[in-house]
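As a representative case, we now present a protein record of this kind.
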Amino acid sequence: MNDVPLRCSPSLDRVTAATGIGSLPGTDIDGAVSLVFDALPDLPHLPELPSRGAGSDMVGRTAASLVDLHVDLQPAGWRLTQRAGFEERRAVETLERDIDALMAFADYDGTLKVQLTGPWTLAAALELPRGGKVLTDRGATRDVVDALAETARLHLAEVSRRLPAASLLLQLDEPSLPAVLAGMIPTESGFGQIRARETPDVVAGLATTIAAVGVPVVVHCCAAEPPVRLMQQAGARAVSLDLASIGNRFDLDELGESVEAGLGLWLGAVPALGPGVPPSVREVLTPVRRLWNQLGFAADELPGKVTLTPACGLAGASEGWARTALRLLGQAARALSEAPETIPS
């Protein structure tokens, strides 16, 4: 791969934008790309379509791309191996076709988001060649962390080749991060848990990828009690959270301090699965405004600090709900930018 200079978005502060988490239902990448650019023109993303099978899933898509490492697919999941297996080769080819689908929008000069699985979720999911999670082996974990940093850099360069006028933004998906910190990742047998990793190690591993890419990075964690301050310490420019996960035990003071220090806040405000009757724009924005009030910020500051997303990926949704959800997010973002103070809390 030839390196291509990346255009870096100068700031995540803007009028309110809306974007997807990553995954969508279906198998048509051209249709998915068109939907994203149409419904989310301020911050489109490269879609992921897990319904296509192994290698299109979150972990397999990233694992198959790891520089100087190889994987194959076993009943226990994706496993490190000595040479590329069939599933790895197919995943790499599929990802390349996905990136090529962006060329239909080759003149796009805004910001585009791409997603990769974060280092700790990857280490918690991948198996060692002889069994057991990569997370149990510090050397193997370090190899995965280092490989991901280079993979992310090259992945962004490939996207930039297709959209040379676009600024890029990387989302690292880390749903397993709280479990890694708490020592709650199951062992291979399922009867125990892998020992918790120390916070400095986790920060350093995440920071390795963030520092390598040269573009703003958003860390997405839809688990309960995501470690916001840790993500910020690692260099994340924004955190992406499920609004519903910010419950009674969540430290709002810590979140407010992080936002005040410049951390962008991406809020999952639309359900990932169709609720039957779609919510109105007002119903989407009411909990967003309520949280902003709880954090103690003025309403007129909200549009420059918050990005709206689905609660999580939309792979499990119907195609109809996926279209509705993305368009609803776009409408809510425009409404919030135009009149943030009129949305009732």
